[in-house]
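Quick one: structure for this chain?
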Amino acid sequence: MSTINGKKVVLTAGGSGGHVFPAEALARELQANGIEVSFITDRRGNSFSGRFPHLKEYRVFAGAYAGKPFLKKVWAFILMGLGFLQSLLILRKLKPQAVVGFGGYASFPASLAAICLKIPLILHEQNSVLGGANRVLARYARLIATTFPSVEGLPEKVKTVHTGLPVRPEILALRDQPYLIAQTKFRLLVFGGSQGANIFSRIIPEALKNLPLEIKKRLQITQQCREQDLPFVQKAYEGSGLDITLSSFFPDIDKHLAQAQLVICRAGASSIAELSIAGRPALIVPILHSADSHQLKNALFISQVEGAFLCKETEFSCDNLNKKIQELIANPQILAYTAQKAKEFGKPDAVHLLASAVIETI
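Got it. Here's what it folds into:
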């Protein structure tokens, strides 16, 4: 991939880390290739947070409308309209050679503005089903990059490329750290995405408290909980004798992932990408009512190549989890095999592939 100077690219993303982290990784790669990068996000504050001193950041109005009551949908459309007008002004000023949208409603105003100004639009679809915002924009895109080998709902005549999902540098660095079979301590890592998972807060403590004493002595548990769930979860673990670390956010999640013998998590695209890059086995519990069942379909990709254990939410009970934990601890070779399969599923060159696609387009 050759360095090109004097070109401008605008990235647009917002909301959860699942949208922002891939944009951050791409920004680093494009800047390393001499491209001036700007960022348009919504006004909620989840952005690059000053990590790029030479990156221009713009905030526009945007609003979530899916699943909202009528009046909130009307308000969301008003906000989208304002954000679209703001984005038009920003893009006219910047005159970029391309706009790259990472999906979600926060990226919609700038992506739509790019279409109206005839600026090449590149979309990145994280999930195995085309998301709501990308579904509207896709037919006008110059290129759609995908996380998974196939995606439902892609327009037939739009060029696509399977790049994988770029991950944070600290996660990518785990690629060189081999999976370690537990010797004494068995480290269990639990996280539920950017919003946590209430079902994990309810089921996991009870399942682990009822394990045999010899297993409980070995367990070292690191669990992410929603802020409002923390008091309940702390109380649920009281008197269990388990080694527990609880928090609503772990800034050093890469260190916990590196040491984990097993992960329990949701089936967001970024979670699956990070697990497969690191090569760590996971029990994946897709959200039951995710849009178009995209989390279940995400999970099927990695579970069908034996890179993870799939557990539907309807089957995620205290008894089932208790039995599964005992089974896996008793068979560490299964975990090691699953870790290797997960690693084979990962695409460590995702950011290079995506950056190459952007550069080729401009």
